[in-house]
Specification:
With 444 residues, the protein is of the alpha+beta class. Among the domains are: 212 residues, Nucleotidyltransferase, domain 5 (2-Layer Sandwich), CATH 3.30.420; 65 residues, ATPase, nucleotide binding domain (Nucleotidyltransferase, domain 5). The protein contains twelve helices and 18 strands. Helix 1 crosses helix 3.
Length: 444
Amino acid sequence: MEQDNIAVGLDIGTTKIVAMIGRYNEYNKVEILGIGKSKSLGVHRGVVNNITQTIQSVQQAVQEAESVSGIKINDVVVGIAGQHIRSLQHSDYITRANSEEVIDAQDIDSLCNQVHKLVMLPGEEIIHVLPQEFKVDGQSEIKEPIGMYGGRVEANFHVVVGQVASIRNIGRCVKSAGLNLDRITLEPLASANAVLSQEEKEAGVALIDIGGGTTDLAIFKDGIIRHTAVIPFGGNVITEDIKEGCSIIEKQAELLKIKFGSAWPGENKDNEIVSIPGLRGREPKEITLKNLSKIIHARVVEIVEQVYLEIKNYGHEEQKKKLIAGIVLTGGGSQLKHLKQLVEYITGMDTRIGYPNEHLAGDSDAETTSPLYATAVGLVMNSLEQSSFNREEKQIDTQTVEETTEIDAAEGNSSQQERNTAPEKKSIFDRWAEKFKDFLDNAE
């Protein structure tokens, strides 16, 4: 099968690493061809803290995906999260030399490039520059300025910033695992792609992706990304609390959480007890489910309140910025019993659990559509969209070259003309990926 139409997403998480291979089927839906999953060692709160272990885990996940699908993986799109990610709003403008010509993609590119030159704190780097709305000659709330006339083009940008060292470490792991890093995408954006519908993004929605080490937030309104945040707590701190509170080992705490855990203490009766085998011939421990859910409840409330604070910071309480579609929960942590009810209770917003089947082919198996894989599915979709966009651009370019060659063959100066008329069109993403690749190569 040709590598061209295939995309690979690599989700390097705190608890698991997932490699997922997908392609578009004939109905333009995403078909997942193979999944590989390995326990993530060497990642803490979304940040790589042990290179060797992470490389091994990545290789293991990739090999599994390759053997399931029979496809050799070369290029991957990687998700990035971690507590070092922050986002900021910035507005910028360009003045066009000739306002008689319509605004084209190059104008928008040069506007975005200008934002890329923003001076960041030492050790930080811009990951995404996402234009929100544009203003052309003072006319505001324009979503798509291409094709309009105007002298001054202005835009508000949502800029996502991360730490250079963390980004470089991820690049290093991917490279050392024998893969080619195609690009890096912010994980909450990828998850949002996989689980949200266009209507929700229009109405206003907050996506909360509860992972093992971090909880990611992405807020959309009027179809545009408005706010992103990464909160450095996830399912692992809940397990940690159970481990400490019940004096048991981590493996047992994780099992307890998954099997019997609930975010709502009122559900359990006092006489419901789980017995846990002691270590090496010690007495078994008895734990009441009520106590277990009290421990979980306390920590989950803390996580949800932090996320809610971010939603308020975005301005959800203003009428114009109200998130009508409420909250969508996804990620492994969203499978905790009664979590939906607790989130609704704390925030007063409608809540649903998000499954990444929004754009998947109808015959996808149940495993793929679990909230666990939201980020991986989103990364695959991201990569597919980008590659189909690039293919279209290439077709347009080759057509231009052919047309000019025909015209100029008559005039006899075709090669010169060709060079002038077909500048390589590159999307902002591609240029960023190139800069990033150079950056990684220099780093080693």
